[in-house]
């Protein structure tokens, strides 16, 4: 068991080296060392199906069932970095998936709320997050509506691509807060939305991406 954990730790270290190299290759600024350390500590293999754990620390997305995927580690690092989280930040995640991104956020922020619309995924993710002691608040539901009773949030991250930015998420973002969200259908762009003090927003395109489509409850 100890040898297995040591091997996994070595794999995480190699993953971090890969992320640093990719960030420089993409001509981005250095990824926040806090993000890298969080990803060095969070056991990604605990969040993927047993049959795919051999590939847990490779820089590639993996199938987690129900037509959903866990994002490749570089995208997790990039999106976490773009949020510019502080230790006391309150964060909303739309699309819990397997729970890995939420666990990384929990290592960076004060409180994390995460919503998943696919029931089976949400239940499994909640169990894993609880077992690992992350303290993440989870819910099964339509992320398009956000989590109004827990709002406002310092940061919001969306891990599936809608064709537009949900208005409720803008409403639930604090002035000065940041949202990182992929937007688009056939062609998707990762966008950072910053909310101004007067409630208006500024949007910045970051990089082309490919995420699963944003799922909503039937009207």
Write structural notes for this entry:
- With 219 residues, this protein is an alpha/beta fold.
- The protein has a single domain (2-209), classed as Vaccinia Virus protein VP39 (Rossmann fold), CATH 3.40.50.
- 32% of the residues lie in helices and 26% in strands.
- The chain has six helices and nine strands.
- The protein has helices at residues 2-25, 33-41, 73-83, 100-106, 119-131, 167-171, and strands at residues 62-65, 68-70, 90-94, 111-116, 137-140, 153-158, 173-184, 188-195, 201-209.
- It has a seven-stranded mixed beta sheet with strand order 5-4-3-6-7-8-9.
- The chain is globular and about 50 Å long.
- The model has no long low-confidence stretch (mean pLDDT 93).
Question: CATH first level: which class?
Answer: Alpha Beta
Shape: globular
Q: Can you say what the CATH homologous superfamily is? A: Vaccinia Virus protein VP39
Q: What is the total domain count?
A: 1
Approximate strand percentage? 25-35%
Oligomer description: single chain
Number of strands: 9
Provide mean pLDDT, rounded: 93
Biggest β-sheet description:
7 strands, mixed
What's the CATH topology name? Answer: Rossmann fold
CATH architecture: 3-Layer(aba) Sandwich
* Rg from Cα: 16 Å
Number of helices: 6
Q: Helical percent range?
A: 25-40%
- Order of strands across the biggest sheet? 5-4-3-6-7-8-9
């Amino acid at each position: 068991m100890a040898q297995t954990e040591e091997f996994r730790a070595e794999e995480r270290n190699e993953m971090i080296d890969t992320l640093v190299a990719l960030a420089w290759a993409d001509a981005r600024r250095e990824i926040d060392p806090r993000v890298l350390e969080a990803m060095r500590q969070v056991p990604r293999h605990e969040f993927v199906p047993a049959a795919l754990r051999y590939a847990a620390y490779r820089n590639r997305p993996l199938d987690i069932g129900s037509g959903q995927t866990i994002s490749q580690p570089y995208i997790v690092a990039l999106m976490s970095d773009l949020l510019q989280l502080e230790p006391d930040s309150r964060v909303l995640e739309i699309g819990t998936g397997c729970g890995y991104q939420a666990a990384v956020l929990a290592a960076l922020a004060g409180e994390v709320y995460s919503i998943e619309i696919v029931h089976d995924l949400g239940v499994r993710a909640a169990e894993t997050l609880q077992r690992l002691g992350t303290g993440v608040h989870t819910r099964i539901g339509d992320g398009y509506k956000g989590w109004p009773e827990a709002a406002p949030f310092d940061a919001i991250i969306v891990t599936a691509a809608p064709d537009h930015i949900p208005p409720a998420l803008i409403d639930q973002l604090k002035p000065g807060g940041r949202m990182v969200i992929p937007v688009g259908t056939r062609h998707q762009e990762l966008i950072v939305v910053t909310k101004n003090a007067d409630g208006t927003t500024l949007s910045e395109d970051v990089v082309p991406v490919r995420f699963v489509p944003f799922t909503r409850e039937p009207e």
